[in-house]
Design goal:
- By secondary structure, the chain is mostly helical.
- It has ten helices and four strands, in the order ββββαααααααααα.
- Among the domains are: about 80 residues, Cytochrome Bc1 Complex, Chain D, domain 2 (Orthogonal Bundle); about 90 residues, Cytochrome Bc1 Complex, Chain D, domain 2 (Orthogonal Bundle), CATH 1.10.760.10.
- The chain has a two-stranded antiparallel ribbon with strand order 1-4. A two-stranded antiparallel sheet has the order 2-3.
- The chain binds heme C (2 copies).
Length: about 250
């Protein structure tokens, strides 16, 4: 079979960031003068590109992902020191990467590298990654066994199961499985994150970011902001208990 030497792989979604002004974002992220508030890039921060229209899509360029090389790159950069051996974390405040759909990991790494998703450690570690490294790491992480369940309060957990699986028509809650897939295992085609057994403190923190910080600069802040609009703290606690302990 003849494979192209290099293939530009369009991500299943464009990487879109809303105009934000937030202290955790390094530099100023400003809107493109041509596209009125959004920009699409997996490149340098918008502040250095704002004179040009930034609506041109920059896909990652890579040949067929090589999980074995991804493991080598992950070891070189000591990803396991924070994300755990075989990328299963033991810190409740840090996400595991094992079992994540590759498209989600590629998208997030591109976002950190572009200094758009805030986090100093991640922006630093991704700065030197090439597109191929990103695709290879994503393939490596996807092939590992996901995190086991965390401990959670049974009653709280039971309360979180309903919105997760079925939503709640009366309260305008969309079922999480619609976008995060059966058992929360994510959806590679849509770039949906796996949230199965997500580290509980990290889950609580990221859900607050989505809900309380309009324009939280991840690639798709709006989906989760809309989902969580009418969630109370008690609802959040219940859903975090559920997603962090999905396979008892
Ligand atoms: C010094 C600690 C540290 C190191 C080393 C580190 N990370 Fe991270 N990583 C973090 C933190 C903290 C977060 C969560 C950021 C947040 O809260 O938004 C994170 C988040 C991520 C995410 C997003 C996960 C999600 O569920 O959205 C990915 C993907 C990731 N890291 C990949 C890597 C890879 C690959 C490496 C090695 C090349 C690496 N990290 C090295 C600390 C680290
Ligand atoms: C309409 C689609 C949609 C629905 C419904 C939805 N999500 Fe999400 N969710 C997303 C998208 C898109 C992202 C990724 C945002 C980004 O990083 O760009 C996300 C990200 C997340 C993350 C962060 C994952 C990580 O590893 O950092 C968590 C946690 C999460 N969702 C939990 C939930 C929960 C709990 C529900 C149900 C209450 C839910 N989601 C319902 C679309 C959805």
């Amino acid at each position: 079979m003849c494979l192209p030497r290099s293939q530009t792989t369009a991500e299943p979604h464009s990487i879109t960031f809303r105009t934000v002004s937030r202290s955790t974002v390094r530099g100023s992220v400003r809107s493109c003068t041509h596209c009125g508030g959004h920009h699409v890039a997996a490149g340098p921060p918008l502040s250095s590109r704002s004179a040009r229209c930034c609506h041109r899509r920059r896909a990652l360029t890579y040949t067929a992902p090589d999980a074995a090389h991804g493991q080598v790159v992950a070891e070189q950069h000591e990803c396991a020191s924070c994300h755990g051996g075989r990328l299963v974390t033991s810190y409740p405040g840090l996400p595991s990467l094992a079992g994540q759909p590759p498209s989600y990991v590629r998208l997030q790494l591109a976002a950190f590298r572009a200094k758009l998703r805030p986090n100093e450690a991640m922006q630093k570690v991704t700065a030197s990654l090439k597109d191929q490294d990103i695709a290879d790491i994503a393939a490596y992480a996807a092939g590992l066994n996901p995190s086991p369940a965390w401990q959670a309060d049974d009653a709280l957990r039971a309360k979180g199961a309903a919105p997760f699986n079925a939503g709640d028509g009366k309260r305008n809650f969309i079922a999480c499985v619609v976008c995060h897939g059966a058992n929360g295992r994510g959806d590679d085609r849509l770039g949906g994150a796996s949230i199965t057994n997500l580290a509980p403190e990290y889950a609580g923190r990221v859900l607050h970011e989505f809900k309380d910080a309009p324009g939280f600069p991840v690639p798709y802040p709006d989906a989760m902001r809309v989902v969580l609009k009418d969630y109370t703290q008690a609802d959040l606690d219940a859903v975090v208990a559920y997603i962090s302990s999905m396979t008892p």
